[in-house]
Amino acid sequence: MNSKPNTRVLIVEDDAMVAEMIKGMVIQEGYTVVGAVCDGRAAVAAVLCLRPDVVLMDLEMPEMDGIEATRCIQATCPTPVVVLTAYDDMQLTTDAADAGVGAYLIKPARGRDLARAITVAQARFSEVRALTAMNADLTAQNQDLGAFAHTVAHDLKNALTPLVGLANLLGEDLPRTPMAKAQEQLDVIAAEGKKLGHMIDDLLLLAEVRDRDLAPRPMDMGAIVLEAQARIAHLVEELDGEIRVAACWPPVLGYSLWVVEVWVNYLSNALKYGGRPPRVEMGWEWVSSDGEAEEPAQRWVRFWVRDNGNGLTREEQGHLFAPFVQLSPGGSQGYGLGLSIVSRIVRKLGGEVGVDSAPDQGCIFWFTLSAADERVTSG
């Protein structure tokens, strides 16, 4: 809550003499008057322009009354409102409260009453804003949990179905199954089981990111990149892929166990959905807080992975990092849970994620982290 000398007040009153009297009381009580208007429409415009800390609002005015003006203010630029009116009417009080009024005074008001009403309105406004934010957060969490449960059930079922089916088939026909065929089916079962294990690891990581609070600390990004490359070396060999890596990496703030998962996810997707054979590049650049490239003195670094695949449409890009949305079939092997985890990790560390792409032009998946200092280390 603001102290009196720093509290900026807008007066809304259609009677010029009353407006001048209110202004005198406001100044005498130690507040700053930033403007005075005479009708509701002007009040809404003035709030948007002047951004006062509190509005002293008359009720009966031409063009737009005080209740409607308050409703518009709370919808466009929420601000504490104190109503000043000559009418002592219970229905008006109820309507004013429903519109978002924080305090209600009957004219003529005394300076001390005015100061008390401003304090009450600001306190109530802060409480309402906090409750609104809390409710929005709880609603988002409930929606998130619902989507999470649906995705987990779907992906686990998809992974279990072939595993159980093959095991039953092999068990029923084992005496007549040639050894080579049996071994082939066992290999498939083992592979599906491995996929299930990876999925469970993803879910455990997601739970850790959701629940764990930590302070980002300096990391050696070069070492993290090497670890990520080692994790996907089998995929590079299997797909006859190639990864070109920057010669050096800047130190940034983060959590290495999480950041390596970001790289692994981006690299895996680039290899799986890139061209044939896949050609992948890894790099970085300094950026400012608004995302524009800048000199190394800026405090943000954007890391990226570029592939030679078919690219993504604008619509696909818009859904890509949404929680638990998959653009490709195949459970956790598609663009889905993995990118949800990437988004959660990077945002938990204070950064942003994104993709730049166009059809037939490949994809550049990127994430940003805060720079630890200006030194750059070899990879």
Rg over CA atoms, rounded to whole Å, is 30 Å
Task: Tell me the series of helices and strands, N- to C-terminal.
Answer: EHEHEHEHEHHEHHEEEHEEHHEEE
Adjacency order of strands in the biggest sheet: 2-1-3-4-5
CATH architecture designation of the largest domain: 2-Layer Sandwich
Number of helices: 11
Poorly predicted spans: 325-335
Largest sheet descriptor:
5 strands, parallel
Strand residues, percent: 15-25%
Overall geometric form: elongated
Mean pLDDT score, rounded? Answer: 81
Derived from helix and strand composition plus strand pairing, the structural class reads alpha/beta
Query: What is the end-to-end distance?
Result: 49 Å
Tell me the name of the CATH homologous superfamily of the largest domain.
Histidine kinase-like ATPase, C-terminal domain
Describe the secondary-structure layout.
Blueprint: E1 8-12, H1 16-28, E2 32-37, H2 40-50, E3 54-58, H3 66-76, E4 81-85, H4 90-99, E5 103-106, H5 111-173, H6 179-211, E6 217-219, H7 221-231, H8 233-238, E7 242-245, E8 248-249, E9 252-254, H9 256-273, E10 279-287, E11 300-306, H10 314-319, H11 337-348, E12 353-357, E13 363-370, E14 377-378
Parallel strand pairs: 1-2, 1-3, 3-4, 4-5, 7-10
Antiparallel strand pairs: 6-9, 8-14, 10-11, 11-13, 12-13
Helix pairs in contact: 2-3, 5-6, 6-11, 7-9, 9-11
